[in-house]
Design a protein that fits this description.
By secondary structure, the chain is α+β, with helices and mostly antiparallel strands. About 35% of the residues lie in helices and about 25% in strands. The chain is built from 11 helices and 18 strands.
């Protein structure tokens, strides 16, 4: 079966689904909007014979798992876990400024690349298997995250459980611009560093302890952990009430990226050993979120080799590369399960107003995904 020709003939159907999903805006922090978009998606998945499990949530949009049955064998059932997310970074109403539209072979719109196109790929692949009565050797489990962009412990825990019972994990995040698959991702630590001092009148600053000054001194120390493999961004600073008051408290939110778990341990050791630089001040830190790195493992390299062999048999070639941002693939990979990321379409502008995907890559990647589900 030539899936490339098959999907090329169904291009209009795929684009209509993509348009519906993009126009149903779904920012991570808007539970009502995310649930509305997810409900539409679930209806589409049910049409394709998938079994749906809903994980109700209080703080974020509900999480969903769609399962497509495998061949019945006497052996232990294994599954391929597909990772997607339905949330975006764009607020409701952004569609008015960034409408869904075509321009030659480019498709633009908020969340079109990151990652509603990946969802269209998964839905289209399951629909094809169902319509053509193709039953893969492995069960297919499609997880739809509602808070990938902001991270949430509940979704992390479900991904970990699903990964444990999976033979392999395929993440449908966009490819690296140019089409490369992602075989490594940086881990991410978000740390809030807080300093406290003693307030006083600015006319008698010696009677107080300036928390902002202490914070500045601490931030200067961060250069000690900046290396070629570890980046530190001071992304947000708060502190003080008025110019004529010595501030009693201050805080900074830090975004720290690293390639290996051992680097994370060094970073945490650094924060544990921090000490006040000014007499009378206090400091503390809190880990607000942690995404592990996606490291190369023997299992993931073996999976990559299998995928590349299948690609070669279809006269396709995929380069590989690294990504500075994290994804749900990092969670699965950290469970030592063979994982491959960046299987979504090619494009550019994630989290930017020029976000777009390349239409031919959407057709090609959907065809390739279907081949992988049949042959892995």
């Amino acid at each position: 079966m030539n899936f490339f020709h098959y999907y090329k003939s169904r291009k209009g159907e795929m684009l209509n689904l993509l348009k519906e999903l993009v126009q149903l805006e779904s920012p991570s922090t808007d539970k009502k909007a995310v649930n509305k978009c997810s409900s539409f998606l679930v209806q589409e998945l049910r049409k394709n014979g998938a079994k749906i499990t809903r994980y109700p949530q209080d703080e974020i949009g509900d999480l969903y798992l769609a399962e497509y049955p495998a061949k019945k064998t006497k052996e232990r059932k294994e599954q391929i876990l597909l990772l997607t997310h339905i949330d975006t970074v764009w607020p409701v109403g952004k569609i008015e400024e960034m409408p869904f539209y075509f321009s030659e072979n480019k498709i633009s719109g908020p969340g079109v690349l990151d990652m509603k196109a990946g969802i269209v790929m998964a839905v289209s692949a399951l629909k094809t298997l169902n319509d053509l009565n193709i039953t893969p050797d492995k069960k297919i489990a499609l997880f739809v995250n509602s808070a990938e962009e902001i991270g949430h412990k509940n979704s992390y825990e479900i991904i970990q459980k699903l990964a444990k019972r999976s033979a392999l994990v395929l993440c449908l995040e966009p490819a690296i611009p140019g089409g490369a698959l992602k075989i490594q991702r940086k881990g991410r630590l978000v740390i809030r560093l807080t300093t406290t001092g003693k307030s006083s009148h600015a006319g008698d600053p010696e009677k107080g302890v300036n928390a902002i000054e202490e914070l500045m001194l601490q931030c200067l120390l961060l250069k000690k952990i900046r290396t070629i493999n570890t980046s530190v961004n001071i992304g947000l600073i708060n502190g003080g009430e008025k110019a004529n008051i010595v501030p009693e408290s201050a805080s900074a939110v830090l975004d720290i990226r690293f390639w290996k778990n051992e680097q994370k341990e060094n970073i945490l050791a650094f924060f544990k050993n921090l000490a006040p630089q000014m007499k009378g001040s206090k400091i503390k830190y809190k880990i607000e979120s942690l995404t592990p790195p996606m490291e190369q493992t023997k299992g993931s390299l073996k999976l990559l080799n299998e995928v590349q062999k299948i690609a070669e048999s279809l006269n396709l070639t995929f380069e590989t590369g690294k990504a500075g941002g994290g994804s749900d693939a990092s969670i699965a990979s950290n469970m030592r399960v063979p994982t491959l990321d960046g299987l979504g379409p090619d494009g550019e502008g994630m989290h930017a107003e020029h976000e777009h995907l390349i239409l031919p890559s959407l057709i090609e990647r959907t065809a390739f995904l279907t081949e992988l589900l049949c042959r892995l």
